[in-house]
């Protein structure tokens, strides 16, 4: 039993194999601006009692909680924002514990935060950021004087649905018809979908998916974060936690969506295609994920960062949290003021989004 697996939810992004694949592939390494600086606390008997996954960074890419404005303002004022320390699962906007303490002892969790602050001083880092943390971790960090930031993701929740049609019955008629039309049009040319996991995953599938990922990611972001080696390493170590959904035109795969599976939820991660097919993105990334969750009795589908278009497809807004320690008093005060205005704005936006969910209205 280790701090990375004990006392925390069954989350594939906390698996040591996931971090190892990122580091051994070179995706999360010093040369890409993700230099591992993980903090391990040992007890009096020399055994590990706490772990904080941490990286020294010279940029803010691959985090999905955007602090570029903070960096720009500080640097225009004559400060140096980079390097900074980042506690996160690289390239993965998934809520998961970052203060990994098997005993659940809050004092050890606070000690990890204190150790991160001390390490920032040693590395001459401007700040420490832990993104997509749990609500409990947020409370601990807030009490320790860290700043708290809120944002929004869209999640689908399974209310013991027996089928996709069962889920559709919870939607307003117009929304229900729109989704049925999208699903029909996505596969109208005879495309088929396959779910691949475990021993069914072959290198040929990863070759195809990587081509999709690179083409779509290159057009959208300019430089995708993950390399081909990562997918092979991940598949070799965690195949049973992977759900790769491929769209086929006859024997030829033309698009794919990568998901990871935890104990009670499916996490949508990356997608790509070599052919523009209307609504195929929605089919592969959202509707097939719902189908899979219903078939496997999973409680939640987390569909990744951003995307208000998910709202019309049955994914509801949920709060995500990040915590921030900033060394410079002036920058800290400015960011604190910004966050004090941003948090209620996020709450108001979520309330407005809730009013526009596709579900039937209850009088």
Total strands: the figure is 13
- Estimated structural class: alpha+beta
- Looking across the biggest beta sheet, what order are the strands in? 1-4-5-6-13-7-12-11-10-9-8
Number of domains: 2
Order of helices and strands: HEEEEHEHEHEHHEHHEEEHEEH
Question: Describe it for me?
Answer:
- The chain is an alpha+beta fold and 363 residues long.
- The protein folds into two domains: 12-151 and 318-355, Aminopeptidase, CATH 3.40.630.30; 159-298, Gcn5-related N-acetyltransferase (GNAT) (Aminopeptidase).
- It contains ten helices and 13 strands.
- The chain has helices spanning 16-24, 68-76, 106-122, 135-143, 164-168, 173-186, 203-220, 228-238, 280-295, 329-355; strands spanning 35-36, 39-42, 48-52, 55-57, 84-87, 127-133, 147-157, 192-196, 242-249, 252-261, 265-273, 300-305, 316-326.
- Strands 1-4-5-6-13-7-12-11-10-9-8 form an eleven-stranded mixed beta sheet. A two-stranded antiparallel sheet has the order 2-3.
- Helix 3 (106-122) links the parallel strand 5 (84-87) and strand 6.
- Helix 1 runs antiparallel to helix 8 and helix 6 crosses helix 9.
- The longest helix has 27 residues, at 329-355.
- It is globular, with a radius of gyration of 21 Å.
- The chain starts with 15 loop residues before the first helix and ends in an 8-residue tail after the last helix.
- Residues 1-8 have low confidence and may be disordered.
């Amino acid at each position: 039993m280790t701090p990375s697996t004990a006392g925390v939810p069954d989350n594939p992004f906390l698996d040591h194999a996931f971090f190892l694949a990122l580091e051994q592939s070179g995706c999360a390494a010093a040369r890409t601006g993700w230099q591992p600086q993980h903090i391990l606390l040992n007890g009096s008997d020399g055994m590990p009692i706490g772990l904080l996954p941490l990286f020294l960074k010279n940029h803010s890419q691959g985090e999905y909680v955007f602090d570029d404005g903070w960096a720009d303002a500080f640097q225009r004022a004559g400060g140096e924002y980079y390097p900074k320390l980042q506690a996160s699962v690289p390239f993965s906007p998934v809520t998961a514990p970052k203060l990994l303490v098997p005993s659940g002892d809050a004092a050890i969790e606070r000690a990890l935060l204190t150790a991160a602050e001390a390490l920032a001083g040693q590395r001459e880092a401007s700040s420490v950021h832990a993104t997509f943390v749990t609500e409990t971790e947020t409370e601990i960090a807030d009490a320790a004087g860290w700043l708290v930031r809120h944002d929004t993701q869209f999640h689908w929740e399974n209310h013991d649905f027996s089928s996709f049609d069962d889920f559709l019955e919870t939607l307003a008629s117009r929304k229900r018809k729109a989704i049925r039309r999208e699903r029909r049009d996505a596969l109208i040319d005879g495309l088929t979908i396959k779910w691949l996991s475990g021993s069914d995953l072959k290198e040929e599938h990863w070759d195809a998916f990587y081509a999709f990922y690179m083409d779509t990611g290159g057009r959208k972001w300019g430089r995708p974060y993950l390399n081909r080696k990562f997918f092979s390493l991940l598949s070799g170590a965690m195949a049973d936690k992977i759900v790769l959904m491929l769209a086929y035109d006859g024997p030829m795969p033309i698009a794919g969506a990568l998901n990871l599976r935890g104990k009670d939820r499916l996490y949508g991660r990356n997608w790509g295609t070599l052919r523009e097919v209307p609504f195929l993105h929605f089919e592969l990334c959202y509707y097939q994920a719902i189908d899979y969750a219903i078939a496997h009795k999973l409680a939640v589908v987390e569909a990744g960062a951003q995307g208000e278009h998910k709202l019309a497809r049955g994914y509801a807004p949920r709060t995500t949290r990040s915590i921030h320690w900033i060394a410079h008093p002036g920058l800290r005060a400015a960011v604190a003021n910004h966050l004090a205005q941003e948090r209620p704005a996020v709450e108001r936006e979520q309330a407005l989004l809730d009013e526009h969910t596709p579900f039937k209205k209850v009088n």
